[in-house]
User: What shape does this take?
Amino acid sequence: MALNVAIDGPVGAGKSSVADEAAKRLGILHLDTGAMYRALGLTALRRGVDPADEKAVTALCLNLPVTVSYSGDGQHTFVEGEDVTGLIRTPEVSMAASTVSRYSEVRKAMVRLQQKLAAETDMLVDGRDICTTVLPRATAKIFLTASPEERARRRFLEMQAKGMPDSYEQVLEELRRRDDQDMHREVEPLRQAEDAVLVDSSNLTFEETVERILAIVEEKRHG
Ligand code: DC
Assistant: This one.
């Protein structure tokens, strides 16, 4: 069986960057599943499909499979052969991704692809339903979180560095809205799997968080 590390958690818990670094140190690939929902959200917005229209979004997803590939700088996400990696990080796409991820047919298609990728290769996979649904038998399962205020603070600093103009209050408000939508949707809401190890990074540095994750993986692998 491939080495699979599963990490779930809410918006802004630092999953992506922590997962990236932990995967690098483990010498395995990092699959960012949020990027796949984002690619679909972006496509809906571009084609004038309302993300709230389940039927239309489902049709779009089934006809337009999202794919990923890897190069020296990590994961690239594609829709119909177009590399959309650089286009999927705006607040508008974040909200659209959260909305389209509510639909059961969309989730089924994404989960199937994620399972296929992880069965073939050693991988660290991060998302919202990885421990619970995508890889319930993963080698190590982690729920990475932090307080909403701390997550919003980190995200705010990240956006400021990119020159995006939102205020801290706007970022916190958007994060609470997305948390609410991700945790209360009918299909596979975000929750901590019973056998996932909780890592609260509110008072941990980036390095401490990565080390904590590597220690959990080590323990699960070698007991
Ligand atoms: O991790 P992220 O912020 O890039 O994810 C974008 C949205 O996609 C998030 O609001 C919820 C959804 N998502 C999901 O439902 N399941 C996943 N495995 C990953 C992301």
